[in-house]
């Protein structure tokens, strides 16, 4: 087991403007720039570069709200992603992307990206040869124009301003001020190439954050109304997030920790943290007013898979790496047996004083530690278990993520499945001590370095004062 650098997690103080990474592109348009609305029959063509350029973002702004900056703007965007160019319709608050048509499924194009509000009222994104990659599905519903409201809601309306389609009905990873999300709705992080992604879900009895890995789902944060009251919907106000019942009465509230009015709620694509944001006029950016999780080790991926997040917020490998894997910068999952089972093939490595932030997985109650370990070795989908000696509970995991160091007196024991014979020659007891002692040594070294540096600074300062007194006398 080797110590790693501290996890790459920082408090989310602000959003960096997207234009820092963008480039100017040539835009052909037919009805002007940033109108108050777009009428049916409108068509805009955004040129796509011939050669791929990493970090490229090109936008043509269509309509905007008449508010003090930062205001809402709708744009057609071409973005360089995974060696291709993605075409999308998006809404921005200042320079922060708050809605995107390609959040769940990207539309890749070459040569051009076309936005069209057809004469029969359908809003479409098209590529070469009129290939349609996204549409509103509002054909022949009386749609007359596209507007963006002061709330940031992008809407298609008919001649009497009845809404036929709205972006608020298709939430992505952001919830705006004034927006309402009903029970069974969720926000999701952008998946990208990873098999892991996060979600913020509104359930009948709670709101919760989830980690999704393949077909596996685990919660890692939740907030419940008192007295087991049921939730009907949530709404974001100026001073926090409100939870409401079926009668529209507020039953719980998550308050902002700043005086400035809130503008949006966001689910972090990298960390999976949930945060409320306000706009700082002095710094000219958005800053976090509240975060659901404030400790690195309480994040599901505060450390990489098969790493332990320690008390000092550093990451340590669980161990059992081959020589080839030790030479790599990443821990990897070494000899952890994924997809294997049977007592003749696998055994359990026991880590005392180690727990997990992941919840809601399968569990068994009133079982012994030995029974807990045996059930995992017999289950090919199980790679680890968390056993509580106090509650006699056994929690089963299909991933080794969200693992963190806990107090030994908590009575928690984390066990991972390894190939049979991995512990041979060391003995189970010695191997367990080896893993935990190394975690303790890493933390101890950090503490010694901090206090040693402080002592050195104080001694140097005292010597300088003594020399100054001698010179003056």
Automatic annotation (TrEMBL):
<dbReference type="Pfam" id="PF01453">
    <property type="entry name" value="B_lectin"/>
</dbReference>
<keyword id="KW-1133">Transmembrane helix</keyword>
<dbReference type="InterPro" id="IPR035446">
    <property type="entry name" value="SLSG/EP1"/>
</dbReference>
<protein>
    <submittedName>
        <fullName>Uncharacterized protein</fullName>
    </submittedName>
</protein>
<keyword id="KW-0325">Glycoprotein</keyword>
<keyword id="KW-0812">Transmembrane</keyword>
<dbReference type="InterPro" id="IPR001480">
    <property type="entry name" value="Bulb-type_lectin_dom"/>
</dbReference>
<feature type="transmembrane region" description="Helical">
    <location>
        <begin position="434"/>
        <end position="459"/>
    </location>
</feature>
<dbReference type="InterPro" id="IPR003609">
    <property type="entry name" value="Pan_app"/>
</dbReference>
<keyword id="KW-0732">Signal</keyword>
<keyword id="KW-1015">Disulfide bond</keyword>
<dbReference type="InterPro" id="IPR051343">
    <property type="entry name" value="G-type_lectin_kinases/EP1-like"/>
</dbReference>
<feature type="domain" description="Bulb-type lectin">
    <location>
        <begin position="35"/>
        <end position="169"/>
    </location>
</feature>
<keyword id="KW-0472">Membrane</keyword>
<feature type="domain" description="Apple">
    <location>
        <begin position="341"/>
        <end position="419"/>
    </location>
</feature>
<dbReference type="Pfam" id="PF00024">
    <property type="entry name" value="PAN_1"/>
</dbReference>
<feature type="transmembrane region" description="Helical">
    <location>
        <begin position="15"/>
        <end position="34"/>
    </location>
</feature>
<dbReference type="InterPro" id="IPR036426">
    <property type="entry name" value="Bulb-type_lectin_dom_sf"/>
</dbReference>
